[in-house]
């Protein structure tokens, strides 16, 4: 199987596409799925493959339950520098987040399911989903009704993870990956010559003070046990070196795991802004844009997987990751478990040199098979 996994991964690696515009990728997947006895559905720019088991149906159930396995499809706007023989053929785009590997695992699973589906007590749905890196294609897939259509009762997904030892599998119960919100603040001051600062309202200085106030607030006003993050990565201000800045723009990110925490921090940012408005006579606009919900792993599924996948050196992460992932949309509809598959590489995701040993994909397939063969989901 490893040679087939390599072929899938390297073929897909050469045709990276962005967002929902994954036409070549989708066609590649569909062409390979057509050889199997499965129901293929193209939906929201992605593809679903439904494998139906004809084993005796649960008494009283109108449709046999299904387990879903999910892979993302899209790449990143990164110019690849790996120099690999299978390097990207699409200039300026690269599979730098391992989605090519995720798809390869599910294509290999399709081949396995063609042989074992009739021995399973449940149906299986393979989900190939676009736009994980952008607007969150998972939300569109769920809204299209694919989970309810196929009576999906639980869902699993793997993501390659460089910081985890090669072939090792890791996850944690409950909070796993954060909700991401964008914070945009615009401070309106008044320009003046630096020689006459009393005639202006220094938007740059106010911006610096606001950042310090917000960092201190986030650090001291919430319990250390409450997972969250507030950081500003961009500040735009001023026009020339000898003039008081009339305007400052701050762009940051808020990561958390609960609505209460997000609402509290937003309220305090607004209150702190109002305090500085009163103090300096400026005007401050605050805007928060929410991204994907948090990935909250189902505890029973985690405990079950921890035992089932012990042979893979299962690792339980002590704290969640302040990264965002749209797998969360599936988890809002059905119990779900998101796991990391270690590549043991020094180069991080989203790097133009990212690559990995494809043998780890075999580990992912073996883990998927273990789950499908060992779990029972009932009606």
TrEMBL record:
It comes from the Bacteria. This is Amidohydrolase.
